[in-house]
């Protein structure tokens, strides 16, 4: 138990009404001010603005002429009209190098990621042509590189395959993919337009780390089909089914030529990544390594005709740019509901990844991005993409990192990448005919390895055990069940943590730091002393209907425990209970009723309740509810030190 200081001496004021304990008055003590009554409409508008428009997006329009406001409005929707005015040759040089570099990385990745989504490889290339052009005009990030990504491709493929078999019904599967992409875009744009971007923050960092790690392992295991040359492979994604499928095919289904190609180039890719990590100036080595691997492996298979020996290849890849797919989107019928559901899930995951990437690189270059504008840009991008034979695209971390390292200056690097992809679609796609599936598997395995962030998981374990439970729940849910189950677990645990923190807020007993008037948690500061006869408790949360009873019961339990300690040590009984209210940002009627019940309970035990430093919102509600009158304004103090000083005379009399 923390040590107790001697009571503070002082004069005694006259007793208050209702038999309350006398409190010393001081002419130098400041009273807690009650804020003036607010107009209900103004109060509502303030709350609404802080909830949805906390960044004051219209501040640039104030005091501007109409012509200027029109230009600012255009720049707000299309940032290209803002940064485009100062664009120059020097910036273009950086964007050109970055665009060519990420193009060399995206082309082989796009082909592989399309296979993750159970789509023809050309749709991966389509999705790196149109969406980046739209984003370059509407996006506010200078560094993010747009295109298909591994996690969203796997998620989309898993959810779509649960509704339609891509082998027996390829046309319906493709139409459902476009429908899901359309509604993913609608979801993203709606969240941004209605400024609901805060909803994606409900997926905690720990849950994302676990989900990404589990998805990375799932994707790597899925690539064993192409890596080992297995023809008959399970359609399930859980680790047990995949490993059973792999080992059951070991005696007759593995192809040694395929394994040799895959293992050789995977080693090359991992080595190039290691070189890039050790020497930042050689960042381009791991960026161009996938394209080099595709070129060499394709040439090797072509000259040796390894495809005749069982090495599986891409085969035909259509030439030409994206055809229109507007008429293939389901706007009615039995697949509409499934398309909306899959689109919402895929859109939320894509948003979470893209906004996190954009904020990361914006912080590194010291500029700001508007999260809601980003969501609108990503949404419009996917809506347009769904009408031009693309599936869900978002920000790619691996490509964005390469884009950043290559010295990109603006979103023009995305335009350069799109042009390269366009040229590939027009002239180079026949060259991918003999590309072995093993090299695509190796590229995907190499790309997803960084998603397994072991250091982040260790840090989460050290810092917050509950966060670690969320991380591992999402991780094991993905690898042992499915991607959607893992995502559901991640969201559920994140919400459960929020509910736990709201319904079970922390409370602490405070003591005085020696030779100061500061009161702090006695567990954090063992040297803090407690004044005999006074118990000071801090509530570290707003008091709402969801936690009001818990707060009241927890305070009473603190009091009971302290009374038992005091009795055992033959110290003066507890006469004053001080509640430090500065962390209590708000209180509702349930919270006020809980304080009333606590006050009445303490009165029966001849213990005076005292409040210290309630905020303006709290004291305003206590005043309107008349609880402040019930308690007495002479029992509400600006600081804990003032409250303890006022309790001193009565304690001196008892001693």
From TrEMBL:
Question: Would the keyword NADP be found if you checked this record's keyword annotation?
Answer: no
The gene behind this protein is st2
Tell me which domain of life the UniProt entry assigns to the organism this sequence originates from: Eukaryota
| Topology of this chain in the membrane | Multi-pass membrane protein
| Protein name per the record | Sulfate transporter
Q: Which residue stretches belong to region Disordered?
A: 1-35
Query: Where does the record place it?
Result: Membrane
A GO molecular function assigned to this protein is: secondary active sulfate transmembrane transporter activity
| A GO cellular-component term linked to this record | membrane
Q: Where are the transmembrane segments?
A: 144-162, 174-194, 206-224, 253-270, 282-303, 340-363, 375-394, 414-432, 439-461, 473-496
Q: Which Pfam families match?
A: STAS, Sulfate_transp
What the entry lists under PROSITE patterns is as follows:
SLC26A (PS01130), STAS (PS50801)
Give the record's keywords alphabetically: Membrane, Sulfate transport, Symport, Transmembrane, Transmembrane helix, Transport
Q: Where is the STAS domain?
A: 524-647
The species is Brassica napus (Rape)
